[in-house]
Amino acid sequence: MVNEFPQVLTIAGSDSDGSAGMQADLHTFFIRKTYGMSVLVAAVAGNSYGIHAAETLPLDFIDKQFEVLADDFKVRASKTGMLSDASLIEAVVKAYKKFDFGPLVVDPVITTKHGAQLLEAAAFEALKEKLLPLATVATPNFFEAQLITGRTIDNEQQQAAAAKDIQSLGVQNVIIKGWHNQDNQNEVADYVLLADGSDFWLRHPYFDTTHINGTGDTLSAAIAAEIAKGKDIATAIRIAHDVTATAIEHEIAVGHKFGPINHWAAQDYNKKEDK
Ligand code: PXL
């Protein structure tokens, strides 16, 4: 039957080196056995040394991408990545209200792991007031969570408090990633706060690697893929967390500096789960 296969949409920027952004999202959709589609809103000239230039696409072309997908496909879940500025955020919000693209996972991409700014400061209010209230799941890392909430996150209590603050912006479910436990340097702890107020921690070992480009993109894309396949939110987040940790554990040796995680390695996760 037409459109029965689970379809997922990424609304994001292209990263020319393939390690992050839309490219990482599409790799993730593929390994999670979903059909990936993309609305391109921006593009960066990036390599493993960093981001060297960035451009945004014309708003009418962005609108058109949404419109033609809505005309033909049944998107079951979506995610956002790099949105650069307030006009792009508003274009996404407008399309999301007009069309049915399923539950939305918002990865509030603000900077790269290496400090390049991907969302201009003037767009913070639009992120907080317009986009996050549409999110079924938001996936800030602890650094982004600090910027969104104005809190310092130095311990697990503060991480949990920040998640509550983010929920109060209208987000249903929140995962704050990447708190590198100061008392236990071998562990990274992610905190999950669900819509019903229940919560849990997801912990994985700290992998000492410079190959972590695309980590946040992969996690949020995997959550969207699992939602598209009908998983409940907590299960989607747990699977995405495992898949991402597996991909980090097995880096790919390309580029001279900060390289990609390994989506192929994470394919093995399919053997454990997901028939
Ligand atoms: O991983 C964050 C990210 C998102 N989107 C684009 C990027 C990056 C990081 O480099 O380039 C386009």
SSE blueprint:
Elements: E1 7-15, H1 21-31, E2 35-47, E3 50-56, H2 59-72, E4 75-80, H3 86-98, E5 104-106, H4 124-131, E6 137-138, H5 142-149, H6 156-167, E7 173-180, E8 187-193, E9 199-205, H7 215-228, H8 233-249, H9 263-267, H10 269-272
Parallel strand pairs: 1-2, 1-4, 4-5, 5-6, 6-7
Antiparallel strand pairs: 2-3, 7-8, 8-9
This protein binds 3-hydroxy-5-(hydroxymethyl)-2-methylisonicotinaldehyde.
Family: Belongs to the ThiD family.
Catalytic activity: 4-amino-5-hydroxymethyl-2-methylpyrimidine + ATP = 4-amino-2-methyl-5-(phosphooxymethyl)pyrimidine + ADP + H(+); 4-amino-2-methyl-5-(phosphooxymethyl)pyrimidine + ATP = 4-amino-2-methyl-5-(diphosphooxymethyl)pyrimidine + ADP
Domain Pyridoxamine kinase/Phosphomethylpyrimidine kinase: 15-262
Terminal Cα span: 20 Å
Q: Tally of extended strands?
A: 9
The CATH class is Alpha Beta
Low-pLDDT segments, ≥5 res: none
- Number of H- or I-type helical stretches: 10
Order of helices and strands: EHEEHEHEHEHHEEEHHHH
Number of domains: 1
Strands side by side in the biggest sheet: 3-2-1-4-5-6-7-8-9
Dominant shape: globular
User: Helical residue percent?
Assistant: 25-40%
Ligand species: 3-hydroxy-5-(hydroxymethyl)-2-methylisonicotinaldehyde
| CATH third-level topology | UDP-N-acetylmuramoyl-L-alanine:D-glutamate ligase
Structural class: alpha/beta
Q: Specify Rg, calculated over alpha carbons.
A: 17 Å
CATH architecture identity: 3-Layer(aba) Sandwich
Mean pLDDT level? 93
CATH superfamily placement:
Ribokinase
Strand percentage: 15-25%
How would you sum up the major sheet? 9 strands, mixed
